[in-house]
């Protein structure tokens, strides 16, 4: 498989953020969005293709986890938290 | 290509609508918290608007009592609750082998977090059982000159970090066993059982975003520390803790430890920032607030504040939108002030005024700000009603008062 291109990395980043926004629990949702942003930002200057591939593979596994856990969270969702009506949590 | 894209867009946009999901019935305690946000569907609800209170859950700021499961932990556990349900001690079939493999992988994950060998990790039902095993060891090895030092790594009420490495070195030089209850510290601050000369360590799953009902005890092999089993039976866990090892729970503990190892630095940085924000904002807006515990040697995620002239229980009740605690959950049924606060020399009246704020991996800045705002508001309100506060405002020194008996 060819080394991950910039476009692929960005696609994965967007896919992870998009999926994370569907967490029904406020704390999981805000954590996932924040963590994904910080992790991609932290690694944006990595040059070694082997390391990039390893990070991408881990991110893909994490995307799978997010998808499954979003699904489960929605099935078992409960009432919102007191601060959820006052602001739309994004970070 | 266009068709696939549009399907994917549809799937992303309305996941709930696409396939009917059986939603589990809500079992949450339905608190009547009035929702002050402007109602969007106003006209049709006009008749019921005065009674239409949405039910909202409080913020969770009590991570020292317990922590939510990290989604990564639940994801690791589920296969063992659905399909891979074998007994890890069954030697004769694939169900047993796969369960055992998962158990040993979890053991390695726990060991790796504290710098131990997997053979030194015994799974238990939690840190309390681990503590009991460690203390019982003292009874078992009773000799006139043998003893055990047992210290909490991070205190659960005031967040103080004990000088574990120093204590470990002193104990090792005096040939005294050293046990530490690291329930609040594992995965939050770096721990190494060899550098810190720890002989026994208790680990709790539900304090580190893992499941409840599981923990571990670390028992040093070199030099060998002998322990006596608390529960006897089939000889599992090297005879030190009989009973079928609960694979789903230990897988969860292992996953929690692995995630903690990866996230320790990130979490610590963020939690420190949020803790500083909370303390600074409260102390800026309210006088006579004391932080309990040594500020130098302190785990940031556990903030214990005393608000003078305000009764702790009433403040807790007032802050009903935020899940908080004063003192530790394990003794919260009694009304006595915390023994920890008494031990550090806190005045009786300040000890009754203490609240513990817990900041964890999933705490947000918005939650901290909301908590701070409510806390400031209610402390001011309660102080307005307090005759003691009134006397202080008038310049009376409360210590000089002679309270007479009626």
From TrEMBL, chain A:
Matching Pfam families: Complex1_LYR
Ranges of residues in domain Complex 1 LYR protein: 7-64
Taxonomy, superkingdom: Eukaryota
Annotated GO CC locations: L-cysteine desulfurase complex; mitochondrion
GO biological process: iron-sulfur cluster assembly
Matches recorded under PANTHER family: LYR MOTIF-CONTAINING PROTEIN 4, PROTEIN C6ORF149
Similarity-based family: Belongs to the complex I LYR family.
Protein's name according to its UniProt entry: LYR motif-containing protein 4
Organism name: Lipotes vexillifer
Gene field: LYRM4
TrEMBL record, chain B:
GO MF annotation terms: cysteine desulfurase activity; iron-sulfur cluster binding; metal ion binding
SUPFAM superfamilies: PLP-dependent transferases
Pfam family for this entry, one: Aminotran_5
Cofactor: pyridoxal 5'-phosphate
EC number(s) on file: 2.8.1.7
GO cellular component, one term: cytosol
Annotated Aminotransferase class V domain residues: 133-370
InterPro entries xref list: Aminotrans_V_dom (IPR000192), Aminotrans_V_PyrdxlP_BS (IPR020578), PyrdxlP-dep_Trfase (IPR015424), PyrdxlP-dep_Trfase_major (IPR015421), PyrdxlP-dep_Trfase_small (IPR015422)
Keyword Metal-binding set for record: yes
GO biological process: iron-sulfur cluster assembly
PROSITE patterns noted in UniProt: AA_TRANSFER_CLASS_5 (PS00595)
Assigned keywords, A-Z: Iron, Iron-sulfur, Metal-binding, Pyridoxal phosphate
Highest taxon above the source species: Eukaryota
Family, similarity comment: Belongs to the class-V pyridoxal-phosphate-dependent aminotransferase family. NifS/IscS subfamily.
Protein name: cysteine desulfurase
Organism: Lipotes vexillifer
Gene behind this protein: NFS1
